Amino acid sequence: MTDKPLGLTRTLRLPSVVLFGLAYMTPMIVFGTFGILAEKTGGAVPTAYVLALVAVLLTAYSYGRMAAAYPVAGSAYTYTRRAFGGHLGFLVGWAILLDYFFLPMAIWLIGAAYLSAAFPGVPQWVWILAFIAVTSAINIIGIKLANGVNIVLMLVQFAVLAAFVALCIHHLTAGPGLRPLFSLDPFAGAGGTLPAYLAGAAIAAYSFLGFDAVTTLTEETVEPARTIPRAIMLIALIGGGIFIGAAVVTQAAFPGGSFANVDSAAFDIATAIGGDVFVMLFLAGLIVAQFASGLSAQASVGRLLLAMGRDDVLPKAAFGYVHPILRTPVFNIALAGVVALAALKLDVTTSTSFINFGAFVAFVFVNLSVIRLLWLRSSDRGLGATVKTLVVPALGAVANLWLLVSLDEHAKVLGLIWLAVGIVYLAYLTRMFSRQPPETEFREVEDAPAARR
């Protein structure tokens, strides 16, 4: 294992940074949650993505402002520490840990739902256990995913996604009962309401997770103050365009929100538009994407927990341990696998909403950090500065808070419990808040692939 800090060499340019962010987002996830969103919004999935994109773009702008002002490897955790101090920064970092820690669980649950639909004779829990066992074994052994493999995987995803959209268009325009290709019906749904659209948007935001991950590449990026803000906005716009476009076509071809199994609705749609041959290709593409995403997400959890253990944020004896032969954080990887067993008792809606709880908390504080650091501490009160560092981040904070409130009730309860545990642990670390919590330094860990979902 090396203790060399990240970012000694600036080699990444805008296209590479954008590709990293898009790879993290996993474009095919738009199909993984389509049935859930259709049911939630009453058949108005594109509207859910539009609302989620608005909140994401506002937050992406704030991330860009912070990355330009503080060009170091950072995240909501780093920005909140700078703006509001170590205690609140720790709690935002704790909320982010919720996002990372339970992300593999949601990824594997989505993959298991589709495999279960394809092979109904095999119980879903078998697929969940298989995902956990195989992925944990690979990560413990320490196999890296090469950049070339990631690029190939992205090309495969885009090819399957393009084929899915093309077949939906063919079904829409050539099938019985000819329907218009361009219509506002997919945005309205069947009598949908604003609360329903917002509830859908709160789930749709799951697809955007990772647009902010490129802030961790700041110290490895050429001209980061200029490149990172542009990359963040491009990732959000391109990802949003893919999600909205795919959702419009799919919802137009299959209106309404009723499916036999909402967790695997895209499987039924793929069967209807392409028959058995295409549905197998679609399933293979989706499962490979979910498997690779889960592999990287679990490796990232191991790296994050290792960094926190090394810096005494978490108990060093367990979380800071690296196997002397395998050179991997065995305990952390195994723990992530054990936590993922919660998928046996959760559905896709609750698990993705639970993860979004942590993301929305982080996004709110990124926006507030812009106001605190770049407006309140600045003497510039001109119209331009006020719009950029007060109005836009304030709108972003409100939008994300609104989505947070719109989450599934179970997810909000679980999220609040997670925060309560974090407050108790923070009190222990700081001797009842009498001192600053330890600060995590994220350094390179051998055999930990880049995070991607």
TrEMBL record:
The lineage of its organism: Bacteria, Pseudomonadati, Pseudomonadota, Alphaproteobacteria, Rhodospirillales. Residues 17-371 form the Amino acid permease/ SLC12A domain. It comes from Inquilinus ginsengisoli. This is Amino acid transporter. Pfam families: AA_permease. It is found in: Membrane. The keyword Transmembrane helix applies. It is a multi-pass membrane protein. Keywords: Membrane, Transmembrane, Transmembrane helix.
